[in-house]
Amino acid sequence: MFKKITAVLLALSFAIGCFFLIGCGGGGDDEPVMDTPAQKIENAKFLYPDKNEDFRYKEYDTYIEIIQCLSLKSNIVIPSKIDNLPVYIIADNAFSNQTTIKSVVISEGIIKIGANAFSNCSMLSEVSFPSTLEEVGENTFRGCPQFTSAVIPNTLSVIPSGMFSNCENLTYVIIEEPANKPAENPENPDEPVETDMRQLYDAFSKCPNLKYAWIPADIQFAENPFGGSIENLTIYGYSECDSAVYCADNFLDFYRVTATAQDLVKFKTMVTKYSSTQSISVGENISENDIKVSVEKAFVLRDKFDYQIIRNVDKNQVIDNYTYNTPAGSVIVFAGIKIFNDTSRAININFLDLFAYMDDNEARFSVFGKLKNSQIQDYSEILDGTINPGETKYGYLAIVAPEDWSKIVIKADSIGPLSNISFVIENNDKVTTVLSENYEIIDNNGTEGEEKEQTVEDILNGLSLDDLLNENVSEATSETTTAETSEETSEAA
Q1: pLDDT (0 to 100) of residue 332
Q2: DSSP 3-state assignment of 41?
Q3: In 375-463, which ranges are continuous DSSP H helix?
Q4: What percentage of the chain exceeds 70 in pLDDT?
Q5: What is the C-alpha separation between 369 and 184, in angstroms, rounded?
Q6: Per-residue pLDDT tens for 186-232?
Q7: Rounded Cα–Cα distance for residues 101 and 11 (Å)
Q8: Domains in the chain, ordered, with CATH?
Q9: Phi and psi at residue 468, in whole multiples of 5°?
Q10: Is the pLDDT of residue 449 over 90?
Q11: Which neighbouring-strand residues pair with 387?
Q12: Parallel/antiparallel/unpaired status of strands 421-426 and 407-412
């Protein structure tokens, strides 16, 4: 009898417990469970658009989505919260085409960056990703020329197309090793541990200066990730992995690493030192790998000036006289640069390997051959050519600029002796205004009086296409003399 009563009491207790669990559980399955950011996004209700001094954003009942940058700051911090709501998403194109942003810190909590979110930001060179990031859209940082490095977080299962494509100064890429995985296989230290595969698409295409890439063993090549970027590329990766096959198929240098953490530390140390860029201004100098470089002076020439192109045709010297009409509202900025080769080998300087930015916009060099002006005589030739051991070379780089120009930055565009150095010329009291004088231009491929027949292309070497189209250059006179009297003619001119 006692056992029956006990059984009944236990049954009643169980029934009452179930009643409270089900009947008082706040609606059971009627309310969606929203524990993770992804679940909150899926079930969120849009409320209204809003903005603050830095961003325009969409406000939902459970999170914020940033849709546009309003800030003109150079260093941007994308916050983890706005209006006491978590920021989860950076929308497509939210920061694209910005010209003032130099660095971005994406705060913890943000899980998604949309397509083209930071594309074509001309000054952006640094980005810090949060550990919460799960998804990145295509072309996120496409066309950002100031990036020299890219570190891809291990929280992304897909590295999308165009993530850092067309970043012309990108030097190295590190894809982080898988999270929460041992650095090496305890049974075989030379083999990587097995993990879920991450997909790599054409994320780094058209990056001509890319030199190094660290590729973990769990990266699967879904497309050609380095199309148009392999000319100078060395890949550091594991044997029997997609990176090894890719190098074999594309005749690339492959450095086989072990799964030890020390290898990655050494790699980071090497590429960080290699890619660091040092800036020098007018009057400053720097020594890089026993090559001593200085921006000695900067000159500005304005208004109209005459110059000559000397051609050697059939042992005769032909002097073509030209007048350069500086475009209205413009000046020509000359940077006078000195390079001393203190190494034991000859080095080659090619001005075509350099590029310039003027007030955050891409600029190009103007070539005037050999200049004859008493105020610029030490820098009369364009910075170009071979410098033998122990020799010093002086040269100029010239850019047509608006009168109100502010700053010009000149950097190397490829591997070479100047690849870690940038020249900065600011429009201040260190810039000298040069009085106009006649210029005598001699073909850089020959010498005065040399027997050398020149083509039309040679003749136009000192003229830019814009000059010709805008009729900034007009031929004044043409003379013919013999090679023997060339010095006399030059002095008379």
Answers
A1: 87
A2: helix
A3: 456-459
A4: 70
A5: 59
A6: 566 555 555 689 999 999 999 998 999 999 999 999 999 999 999 88
A7: 69
A8: 37-275 (3.80.10.10), 281-492 (2.60.40.1240)
A9: -70, -45
A10: no
A11: 347
A12: antiparallel
